[in-house]
Amino acid sequence: MKDPDEQDEEQDEQPGQLERTCINCNYFFPDLRNLPTEFGICLNDEAFEPFIEEMLDNENLECCGDLIDRKRFDGNCEACEDYEECETVDLKEDFGQEFAEEIERLRDEGMLTKETFQEALLRRELRSRTVEDHAEELQDTDPQERLNAVSSLAALTTFGNEDASRLLFGYFRELPPPLTLNEVHFKMEVFRHLSNVEEPGILVPVLVDELYNTPSNNTTKQWLSEIFRFFERCPVESIREPLKKMLGDRRFSYRRKQRMKEILRRKTSNELY
Prior knowledge:
273 residues; mainly alpha; 3 domains; 3-stranded antiparallel sheet; 3% strand
């Protein structure tokens, strides 16, 4: 038969069981005014009873700030007989690997505060936000409504929302070559949003198709010029082969080929330095 002291040690070492300190108790409430912190108050203290609803529901600790200053203590102290073990939160399991890593980085850099934690939660929510409503807005007859949807999708893309990125890129890719001035302006505005959030290498093949399929005239001049301006900003490795191929195509005018040569010459020259 095992010694009672040995049995107590085995119970203390049970996996998943938290150390019996105030900070691990359900009644412990951290002083959120100064995160990160191990100081807090005990909600089981009758002095806080009139303020509990305001503190918990509205996260307003200033309603009894003076009282908190007098009553706050280090949560690492040994818990009393009213101890109730709190539920632990596994950030990786409950919120995902990316969020858990972001919180760990903020903590390691000493930047984990209530505000940065909430910002991380917002970014996580935006990364996973559904885009069905925006997909419907992209089919609206009002061009401004469609542009509003494009703007929203671009914003979601900056937060890593892959569904928004795919929807926005697919929408631009399916837009027909512009034939009127309104269509030119609309497509340029969509592209402005897209080019701010997508890698050049993804956009170059689509823009090459635009050059092949868009008629060259005074109406489309702005859009074609915008494409070449974008090529000038792209890494040379992403545009070298497409431009060389177009230089050998009779469908492109002498003037347009000169523009292609100029871009390649400037890019190649910069690459040497």
